[in-house]
């Protein structure tokens, strides 16, 4: 692991910590999600029945999740920061606020969810290629219809883009810079 990847992991851990502190201060308990037996996760803390809520906490992936299959299928090496972002933690999606508005950071909830995420990444990149646009990898949704946040695979820059369109507004120079700028929304 290089220094950039290690720094991004630290920034993600700090954001998780700030999110949990804010959540506990406001709700006087750890975050909860609705339990779904079809989507179990190592993040879940305690047992529940379908429809009930369960407390959860991010869980480091050891070893990190592997992207070799998607890279082979695409004949493309994914940017190391996107692999670190998606491959380091199982976590529920986290609401946040940037200077431009509210968003939701996407994370794999489980190994099964990671596989679904990879399928969506494949579809997104194939769509970009078909449209002859630069390859991006989405990692967040915004409160604006059809606007997602993506990383430009070749540069690591963070951009806003409408689904199916070229990125239209640069948000940050790197994933680390972007995550550092966020405030948790609980």
UniProtKB/TrEMBL annotation:
It comes from the Bacteria. It is a peripheral membrane protein. Its main location: membrane. Pfam families: Syd. InterPro entries: Syd (IPR009948), Syd_sf (IPR038228). It is found in: Cell inner membrane. Belongs to the Syd family. Interacts with the SecY protein in vivo. May bind preferentially to an uncomplexed state of SecY, thus functioning either as a chelating agent for excess SecY in the cell or as a regulatory factor that negatively controls the translocase function. NCBIfam families: PRK04968.1 (NF003439). This is Protein Syd. It comes from Endozoicomonas lisbonensis. The gene is syd.
């Amino acid at each position: 692991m290089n220094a950039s990847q290690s720094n991004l992991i630290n920034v993600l851990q700090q954001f998780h910590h700030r999110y949990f502190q804010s959540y506990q201060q406001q709700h006087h308990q750890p975050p909860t999600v609705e339990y779904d037996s079809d989507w179990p996760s190592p993040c879940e803390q305690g047992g529940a029945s379908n429809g009930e809520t369960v407390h959860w906490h991010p869980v480091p992936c050891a070893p990190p999740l592997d992207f070799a299959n998607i890279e082979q299928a695409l004949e493309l090496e994914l940017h190391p920061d996107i692999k670190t972002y998606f491959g380091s933690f199982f976590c529920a999606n986290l609401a946040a606020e940037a200077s431009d508005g509210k968003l939701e950071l996407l994370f794999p909830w489980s190994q099964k969810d990671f596989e679904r995420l990879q399928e969506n990444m494949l579809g997104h990149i194939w769509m970009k290629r078909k449209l002859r646009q630069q390859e991006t990898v989405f990692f967040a949704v915004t409160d604006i219809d059809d606007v997602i946040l993506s990383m430009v695979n070749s540069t690591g820059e963070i951009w806003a883009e409408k689904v199916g369109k070229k990125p239209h507004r640069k948000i940050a120079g790197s994933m680390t810079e972007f995550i550092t700028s966020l405030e948790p929304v609980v």
